[in-house]
Amino acid sequence: MPGRFRPGRAPGPLPEVATPSPRIATRSLVHRNPFATVSAVHADFGSFAKDYYVVDFGPRAGIVAANEGRVLLTAQYRFLLDRVAWEIPGGRVDDGESPEQAAQRECLEETGFSCDDLHPLVTYRPGLDNVENLTSVFYSERVQARRPFQPDPAEVLSLAWVPLEDCVSLILEQRIVDALTISAVLAYGCIVARRGKGNGRPAPRS
Q1: Distance from C-alpha of 168 to C-alpha of 98, rounded to nearest angstrom
Q2: Under 8 Å CB-to-CB from 127, ≥6 apart: which residues?
Q3: Entry pTM
Q4: Domains of the chain (ranges plus CATH)?
Q5: Element housing 172 (H / E)
Q6: Per-residue pLDDT tens for 10-63?
Q7: What is the DSSP letter of 171?
Q8: Can you say whether residue 112 is alpha, beta or left, with left for phi > 0 and alpha for psi between -120 and 50 degrees?
């Protein structure tokens, strides 16, 4: 029967909250394009009901490529901003690919730098009701130049090795605005702070 609630297990110090148990109808495809699908689904909670429209972009991965206290950022034109945005390397996880493999591939394709010894950093979902785009972020401190960087007007226009503390300042100044880079840089900053490492040494040369 819809509308029942089941006990919810609380993570860590958070209080337990009863979890709704709705009757969920089969999803129906509303739209498909080369990059995403849109599906409609009806959920009956008993005392109320909701219609959800879920945009599914598939999983993606990103990587904080770090060396001697600096983070590798890429410059790309972003349509909704109508300007260049500075971001960490990342992109879609292809079929048959793990998130780690995707993060390594994207970094090499976009920048010419390879990353080894990847560590999980943060996993998040951009939306919890209507956007399916599970995002896995890693960090690597073993970064090597494999080929010279070639600007691509359709993708990456430029690269920069930016001190971690400057990346955080750019976020607070709202000059870095995409969720992937914000979450990744702040999470990596927490790891660096916990280790007590400095971050003002020179960057590697390509």
Answers
A1: 29
A2: 55, 133
A3: 0.87
A4: 14-56 (no CATH), 60-195 (3.90.79.10)
A5: helix 164-172
A6: 677 888 888 888 999 999 999 999 999 999 999 999 999 999 999 999 999 999
A7: H
A8: left
